[in-house]
Amino acid sequence: MKNSIFYFENFIFDKRTGKISFFYRVENECEFMEEIVFPGAPFDVDADTESALKQVLFLAHIALGISYYKAFLPDDVEVLSGTLTREQAAFFDTFYLKGLGEFAIRNNLNLQGKIHFPFGDIVAEKFILPLEKKALVPVGGGKDSCVVMELLKELKVPATGVACGGSKSQSACAEKSGLPYFTFKRIIDPRLMELNATGKVYNGHIPITGVFAFLLWALALLRGEKYVVMACEKSANSGNMKQGDLTINHQWSKSFEFEKMFYNLTQSMTPDFRYFSLLRPISEAHIARLFAQKCSAYFDVFTSCNKAFKLDLNKRIDRWCGACDKCRFVFLILAPFMDKETLIRAVGTNPLNDENQMQGYRELLGLSGHKPFECVGEVDECRWAFNELKQNPAWQNDVVVKALEVPAASAPFDVAEEHLIPEELQDVMARFRA
Question: What tens digit of pLDDT does each residue of 109-125 get?
Answer without folding.
Answer: 999 999 999 999 999 99
